[in-house]
Amino acid sequence: MELKLNFELVPDSCWYSNLRSILSPAQWDVVRKEAYARADGRCMICGAPAKRLEAHERWEYDEKNEIQRLADVVAVCKACHEVIHIGRTSLTGREKEASEHFMKVNGCTYSDYRKALGEANEAHRRRNAVGEWKLDLKYLEKFTK
User: Fold this and answer.
1) Residues 72, 135: contact at Cβ < 8 Å?
2) For the chain, percent of residues with pLDDT exceeding 90
3) Whole-angstrom Cα distance, residue 124 to residue 118?
4) pLDDT at position 112 over 90
5) Which partner from 21, 59, 119, 136 sits 20 to 30 angstroms from 70, CA to CA?
6) For the chain, how far is it from start to end, CA to CA, in angstroms?
7) Is the pLDDT of residue 145 over 70?
8) 33-68: per-residue pLDDT in tens?
């Protein structure tokens, strides 16, 4: 099943390491505002109109070569962002709301939700076996031209 909204569990060694910690506040503003402009006031995942969007970094992992690559920065609503970061969301006591949003956006069942979460946790476990990820930030080159 192809999912519009999925979990994006970052390897533990990459926690608290994000663009906001790498870029200056002015550079981060350029990146996030470009995502907001592409979104045109709508969540780039579920399509819901939103007065306030949140910038989310999309990472891809080359497990063989141990490379964490920034693939995109997208503008998402709070509800989609809570699904994406389900681990953090669970700690805040909002997993039930996140699971309901996941099922609504994907048009799926609770069983599908649990299966996708299991697959995300398995990928997270594998990626945690990598000691240190090499960072590929080529995505940001378009902002320096």
Assistant:
1) no
2) 88
3) 10
4) yes
5) 119
6) 38
7) no
8) 999 999 999 999 999 999 999 999 999 999 999 999
Structure tokens at 86: 């389900």
8 closest CA partner among 139, 121, 131, 99: 121
Model confidence at 79, pLDDT cuts 50, 70, 90, reads very high
Amino acid present at 108: C
Report angle CA 58, 50, 105 to the nearest 5 degrees: 60
Beta strands 67-76; 54-62: pairing state: antiparallel
The answer to whether residues 14 and 22 touch, using CB atoms and an 8 Å cutoff, is: no
Beta-bridge mates of residue 58 = 72
Q: Mean of the per-residue pLDDT values for the chain? A: 94
Residues 6+ apart with CB under 8 A from 44: 35, 38, 74, 75, 76
Burial zone of 74 (CB within 10 Å; 0-12 exposed, 13-18 middle, 19+ buried): buried
Amino acid code (one letter) for 73: V
d(CA 47, CA 144): 29
CA-based torsion, 99, 115, 13, 21: positive or negative: negative
